[in-house]
Amino acid sequence: MEGDGSDSLVTIKNIERELICPACKELFTHPLILPCQHSICHKCVKELLLMLDDSFNDVASDNSNQSSPRLRLPSPSMDKIDRISRPASQRRSLGWRGWKRNSLTPRTTTFPCPGCEHDVDLGERGINGLFRNFTLETIVERYRQAARAATAIMCDLCKPPPQESTKSCMDCSASYCNECFKIYHPWGTVKAQHEYVGPTTNFRPKILMCPEHETERINMYCELCRRPVCHLCKLGGNHSNHRVTTMSSAYKTLKEKLSKDIDYLIGKESQVKSQISELDLLMKETECNGERAKEDAVTHFEKLFEILEERKASVLKAIDASKKLRLDKFQTQMEEYQGLLENNGLVGYAQEVLKETDQSCFVQTAKQLHVRIQKATESLKSFRPAAQTSFEDYVVNTCKQTELLGELSFFSSGVDVPEINEEQSKVYNNALISWHHPEKDKADSYVLEYRKINRDEEMLPWNEIEVCGTSKVISDLESDCNYAFRVRAYKGSICSPCSRELILHTPPAPVFSFLFDEKCGYNNEHLLLNLKRDRVESRAGFNLLLAAERIQVGYYTSLDYIIGDVGITKGKHFWAFRVEPYSYLVKAGVASSDKLQEWLRSPRDAVSPRYEQDSGHDSGSEDTCFDSSQPFTLVTIGMKKFFIPKSPTSSNEPENRVLPMPASIGVLLDCDKGSVAFYDVDHMRCLYERQVDCSHAMYPAFALMGSGGVQLEESITAKYLGYQESM
User: Fold this and answer.
1) Does the model's pTM come out above 0.85?
2) Mainly localized where (predicted)?
């Protein structure tokens, strides 16, 4: 460490983002390794647990909904820190939330990891069960030293004024100058053998101790939990049934993997630089395109403003014209009425006419005047304004335009984006991808794209298939691989953006096709087989009620077996089936031809439950003979549950062996390795695996009791697609 050059200092400074705690956003301080393998400061773990503890009003609450903190956390009080740091036994006696009151089963503490934002289980010991990340702590200290290269670390033993230190002793946890180091580490003494490094303030223990057994050294590595353990953890602790390896072997393996991965990344340095240059160009292009898009948006809005201004001027002009016309009419009417006043207008004129004494002249003038006086008199009797004062006809109706402006958005080339239907899309022997389009009639065709997701190599190119409908079957996919699918719509030469990607995992082996055998061992009195021979149902009828009478003398009704019509002698094969949710008891798995003959030659109406076939063992000797290979394996499914058989390598508690029944269950038979595994097909996750004797031909085997049904998964073909679309 003390020999680092300037290049090393620059390298250390370049990894700052890896040394920041995701909770407090500062450099790690005494980082702890969480079960999810992310690191977090020791004080941040305490503060987060305190925040979670304060959010619970009931000490028996089970879960927390608080999200991971992203801001600096307030400092907790010392009594709360002490309460968090207590061992699990003390917390239990105080009724802390990590334990349920009046319960014999301890509850573990859940903690929201700020790194992955998932709840992790801290176990019974809580913080005390977490390892301190000394490697990360050392790197952080080296970073701090590189950042404060101008600041020297002073000797801890010098008399004032202290000298600059030249060495730090990891055994003494102190820094020394040359003179003090010679004084306190004289030659020929035990201290002369102490480990010393360059000046540092980070002193870590030379031996890593087990957090669960504080006096024991760490000397093994649990492959299941991916954490170091001591020999007591393996002998009688939480890792007694786990597979462990020596620390040297784990060190060698992990170091080889890490070195290999680093060498791979270093070997791809030119590719990384090329992609960085490409990203830089993309950023510049994005900047230019963003500015251009803003300019275009401003232009469009300015056009809208111009249209609005024109319409505004036109509307205001029309209103002004109408207002002027009405005011003119009112003015004329007002002047006419003012003329009816005495000595004004018409009345005044009439009064002057009455002064005329010449009869012929009076008659000539008075006739027309009398007509006007009569009209004025009538207007007085029925007063009517010359114009309307309301402008109701001039109210601007902007409801439609307001709605359109409220929906104003970006123009996506005129074609809506299709959406992949995740419920109808599936993968089995082939992949069936279905999608729907909001405006189906407006799309002429679609292009379905798919590619294999390969994490170890470069991003693979997309494969394209032109489709006229809204579904497509894709074949020739590799087994046990993830594939990404997306689709886009075409209207003439106009293309829509791509849909959201759908990730599907292919089966772990080629799909094995078979039907139920209606001849070998098929009991048509208890079982009902459809014409296609891919579905069987158990009839819980009169015969079963008669057999149930024997329960009074300790007998139980037997299972009704049905097998596949094709056997397997070699290779690796996968098939899937669905169990109806109403099923009471269904057993499914594989059995050899010899074992099936033994079962089907001597059918019995009743058997003892002690020797009922379950996972290939009788219940009395299951634990002792589990490791011996057997020619059959059956798992139990029923009452919407999937039951994992007992095993000495895993917990046999009922709550750990009972899982929710998957919608579709898969079976993987590997005759070459002599193993059988059961899968949750929707997530392609292995639920249970064990060894099986494949020296004879193996057959898919099923057994039913009570009401129930089994449906074989149908192979995906073009005919299957046509049938689905007709549905």
Assistant:
1) no
2) cytoplasm
